[in-house]
Amino acid sequence: MKAPSDEQLVAWLDNELGAEQRSLLEKAIADDALLNLRVQWLSRANLPYQNAYDELAQQAPLERLQARLDAIPSPEQPGLSRRWFIVAAAAALFAGGVLADRAFLGWQATRSNHGSLPARNAATKRQPISGHDAAPELERKAKLSKAASAHERS
Q: Is 1:28 a contact under the CB 8 Å cutoff?
């Protein structure tokens, strides 16, 4: 049998092992002097330490100790630290960057849509033409296109 761990020995001391394991450990403890010493050392952990120190606790000068504790000034709350300012500056830079990016993208979108049909319709407050109303508008556009090409030729 390999050497038992301290956990197994403590379980043996606390009567938490089965009958078979318990008998194996008892035999190993009886045969091995070092294992017997380890068990004795571990069994001392169950001594009544609290009772040993009760008398000392009763002799403690509680009033004098409490007076000393009361005399200690409370620590001042620190003001805003340098770390707080760094974090605030980083957050402000980040927020400013996001706002600048959104403003630039919005400006770019309005600039690129300035010459498109929806932008012209919005500027002239006309509704897009569809269906049977489209024929006169298409004819007008064709005439304008012919006039522009004739103007370019001359």
A: yes
